[in-house]
Design goal:
Elements: H1 2-13, E1 30-33, E2 36-40, H2 53-66, H3 74-78, H4 81-94, E3 98-102, H5 105-116, E4 122-126, H6 131-140, E5 143-147, H7 152-159, E6 168-173, H8 185-195, E7 198-202, H9 217-220, E8 230-234, E9 244-248, H10 250-259, H11 261-264, H12 271-286, H13 288-307, E10 318-324, H14 326-338, E11 341-342, E12 345-346, E13 356-361, H15 368-381
Parallel strand pairs: 2-11, 4-5, 4-6, 6-7, 7-8
Antiparallel strand pairs: 1-2, 3-9, 8-9, 10-13, 12-13
């Protein structure tokens, strides 16, 4: 194991070592870590539903009705009424004919890509796509062609080299997890249509946050299942629970059920979680004030930052403060922590080299007073 120790020491020296921190209570804007209270700006609980009383009550009700574990894979005896009802709820929510549940977004992306792409296919992927999309393409064994971030002109030039009948797939995040910006999905749909390619969008950070009723990036752009045949979404971010899903047409979902190894060979997520998620989706859909508050808080943060000489992008709810050097990002994160503000330093390989950052994430349960506290601490540590 000496080689592992050497590699870990090297990671320490490059300021890329990662450590876990133990959360003592529920997720929220105010959390307890290591016996100290912090104001948190590093959670994906965008709508503040992870500890919502109605969602907690639904989880308890689901556990009383279905027990704790599912006990089996979906294709044996693990597919409960709660799972089925959630799939129907998500299909109606996304405007797709059907959905299929997975335990994590990582598994959903591995399943989609390893099932729909093979070694004779080409996958065109944005350079800043999430790691699970990259790993899914690797698992598929497909030929990977990466285009510059959100650069549809570059993508068009790559697609021009293929024949229309050549099997191909265009893959992109809807909202990029480390930069908070939206992909040019309408343009991607047009290129996919013009060049005979399928389009897959992972909208993990858009669903619940953007679009009418929280329908996500595709709803905001009024794109149909014909425009984007394959949509992936997660339930552990804006919806505050756990799990993920693939949404699409009848043939797509049936193909996943029959062939997707990450679906077939794993235990179904706990049915009580599925039961609670139905309540979370309902809350996210009808409580528009949560999205309105997120946008208002984002404007307040960006304007306040400019007043103290910090230029932040208007990319709610993910607002990156790019620092560059990993060691400096850690020092700034530590300085904020000493002032009771929790924001993780994001470093390579999660982000490209020399783009280490503080990834500020907002929640509908934050207040302007919370933002003022963040801005005051930033002005001191910067």
């Amino acid at each position: 194991m000496k080689d592992l120790a050497v590699a870990l020491a090297r990671q320490h020296a490059r300021h890329l070592y990662r450590s876990r921190q133990i959360l003592e209570g529920p997720q929220g804007t105010e959390i307890e870590v290591g016996g100290r209270e912090y104001l948190s700006f590093c959670s994906n609980d965008y709508l503040g539903l992870a500890n919502h009383p109605a969602v907690v009550a639904a989880l308890q009700e689901g556990a009383a009705r279905y027990g704790v574990g599912s006990g089996a894979s979906h294709l044996i005896t693990g597919h409960s009424r709660a799972h089925h009802q959630l799939e129907e709820t998500l299909a109606e929510f996304t405007g797709r004919p059907r959905t299929l549940l997975f335990s994590t977004g990582y598994m959903a992306n591995l399943a989609a890509l390893s099932t729909l792409a093979g070694r004779h296919d080409t996958v065109y992927a944005d350079r800043l796509n999430h790691a699970s999309l990259v790993d899914g393409i690797r698992l598929a064994g497909a030929r990977l062609r990466r285009y510059r971030h959100s650069d549809t002109t570059h993508l068009a030039s790559l697609l021009a080299d293929k024949s229309r009948d050549e099997p191909s797939l265009i893959v992109s995040d809807g909202v990029f997890s480390m930069d908070g910006d939206c992909a040019p999905v309408a343009e991607l749909a047009g290129l996919a249509r013009d060049h005979g390619a399928r389009l897959m969008i992972d909208d993990a950070h858009g669903l619940g946050v953007t679009g009418k009723g929280g329908g996500g990036t595709l709803a905001q752009l009024a794109l149909t299942v014909e425009d984007v045949p394959l949509l992936v979404g997660t339930l552990g971010k804006a919806f505050g629970t756990f799990g993920a899903f693939i949404a699409g047409g009848e043939e797509l979902i049936e193909t996943m059920i029959q062939r997707a190894r990450p679906y077939i060979y794993t235990t179904a997520l706990p049915p009580a979680i599925a039961h609670a998620t139905i309540t979370a989706v309902s809350l996210a859909r009808r409580e528009e004030w949560r999205r309105e508050k997120l946008r208002a808080l984002g404007r307040y943060l960006v304007q306040g930052a400019r007043r103290i000489g910090i230029d932040l992008p208007d990319t709610v709810p993910i607002v990156p403060l790019v620092i560059g050097d990993a060691s400096r990002a850690i020092k700034l994160s530590d300085g904020l922590r000493a002032r009771g503000i929790l924001i993780s330093a994001i470093r390579p390989p999660t982000v490209p080299a020399s783009t280490a950052r503080l990834r500020i994430t907002l929640s509908a349960t934050h207040s302007e007073t919370d933002i003022d506290g963040l801005l005051s601490a930033l002005s001191e540590v910067m």
